[in-house]
TrEMBL record:
Entry EC no(s): 2.1.2.11
Gene: panB
Species this protein is from: Iningainema tapete BLCC-T55
Example GO molecular function: 3-methyl-2-oxobutanoate hydroxymethyltransferase activity
Cellular location(s): Cytoplasm
Listed pathway(s): Cofactor biosynthesis; (R)-pantothenate biosynthesis; (R)-pantoate from 3-methyl-2-oxobutanoate: step 1/2
Keyword Magnesium included in the entry's annotation: yes
Keyword Transferase: yes
Protein name: 3-methyl-2-oxobutanoate hydroxymethyltransferase
InterPro entries, per the entry: Pantoate_hydroxy_MeTrfase (IPR003700), Pyrv/PenolPyrv_kinase-like_dom (IPR015813), Pyrv_kinase-like_dom_sf (IPR040442)
Any Gene Ontology CC annotation: cytoplasm
Binding-site list for Mg(2+): 44, 82, 114
Family, similarity comment: Belongs to the PanB family.
Superkingdom to which the source organism belongs: Bacteria
């Protein structure tokens, strides 16, 4: 049975933590889905496996190309597509067009966009009215890199209050879930207790309703990770070893045999 946005809200009510990871192609998405991940995000963080230094350059067409590939690999998980930088901030019309393409062209069930009150509240309300489930994202919003850097957000009492009220406004706008990125754990807990919709944390402590990480960090595919990531396996080493073994066997004419 495919996971629905309603079911994620039920998971919160049942106290069952939500498992989320990112994916960028068919093979990876299929592995995550069969492993039982509840939500697969086609994150604009795939920028890093495409060799971009930030999430700013990736285009909607690039995101949709990868999202289609991910969608073909998924039977159970809810698939959410990140809307990339400047494909939704310009106007509600632009957001509707971009989110509509994400849903119509990829088969994903929902979109995610960054930002809070007041900029994204009306946008989210309009997308939801049009039948598009929206995941919100506050705290560290990497598309605002040149304004806020990559530092933890919500550290002062005033900043914490602002993020708290943004989260409430985004729930009222109709978001089905909200990502809390790189904020203090006690602030994430307060938001999680206040909201009916599930909070999905990344660098936001253990008390969110679920957790998400960037899968290239979990798998150790790249050389560096954010401070809040955990490297569960080092695929860089595993792949290097396999490639070296293959190279030796080719050069010694031991493969094929
Ligand atoms: N591989 C990867 N994983 C991610 O989680 C991720 C990305 N890429 N790219 C998009 C954003 C950027 N992220 C990041 C990246 C670095 C830091 C980091 O190093 N933060 C430091 C401060 C760095 C600074 O001030 O410049 C910290 O201590 O908080 C945090 C979040 C999270 N997201
Ligand atoms: C880290 C998650 C929340 C994200 O936005 C991404 O992977 O792009
Ligand atoms: Mg993102």
């Amino acid at each position: 049975m495919p996971v629905t946005t309603q079911q994620l809200i039920q998971f919160k009510q049942q106290g069952r933590p939500i498992v989320a990871l990112t994916a960028w192609d068919y093979a990876l998405a299929q592995i995550l889905d069969v492993a039982g991940v509840d939500l697969i995000l086609v994150g604009d963080s795939m920028s890093v496996v495409l060799g971009y230094e930030t999430t700013l350059p990736i285009t909607l067409d690039e995101m949709l190309y990868h999202a289609k590939s991910v969608r073909r690999g998924v039977k159970r998980a809810l698939v959410v597509v990140d809307l990339p930088f400047l494909t939704y901030q310009e106007s509600i019309q632009q957001a509707m067009h971009s989110a509509g393409r994400a849903i119509k062209e990829t088969g994903a069930q929902a979109v995610k966009l960054e930002g809070g009150y007041p900029a994204m509240v009306e946008t989210i309300a309009r997308l939801v009215q049009a039948g598009i489930p929206v995941m919100a994202h506050v705290g560290l919003t990497p598309q605002s890199l040149h304004q806020i850097g990559l530092r933890q957000q919500g550290k002062t009492e005033e900043a914490a209050q602002r993020i708290f009220h943004e989260a409430i406004a985004l729930e009222q706008a109709g978001a089905f879930s909200i990502v809390l990125e790189h904020i203090p754990a006690d602030l994430a807990l307060q938001i999680t207790q206040k909201l009916r919709i599930p909070t999905i944390g990344i660098g936001a402590g253990v008390n969110c309703d679920g957790q998400v990480l960037v899968t290239s960090d979990v798998l150790g595919l790249l050389e560096k990770q954010p401070p809040f990531a955990k490297v569960y396996t080092n695929l860089r080493e595993t792949i290097t070893k396999a490639v070296q073994d293959f190279s030796v066997e080719v050069r010694e004419r031991k493969f094929p045999q």
